[in-house]
Give the backbone structure.
Amino acid sequence: MQIDHYNIIKRPLITEKTTIQKEEAKQFSFEVDKHSNRMEIKNAIEHLFNTKVAAVRTIQVKGKRKRRGRIMGKRRDWKKAIVTLMPGHKIEFFEGI
């Protein structure tokens, strides 16, 4: 079975906190597939961005409860991956942001 790396990595997360992490600790944050594990995420990052990954940490983010008038709703749950790169490596995608 062929693993599609583009289905594992959904989108990069660009916030003030992730920008500070990128500059200080060479850590990049991504929204990833809910069912992917750390090794799949590591392989996808290395394949897509042609870099070496030192560590991957994952977090299950629970969707917030929202209210619209009398109707209660909930945003979807998602998974976040924080990827630490090896010294001397970088992701060109984030340069210039």
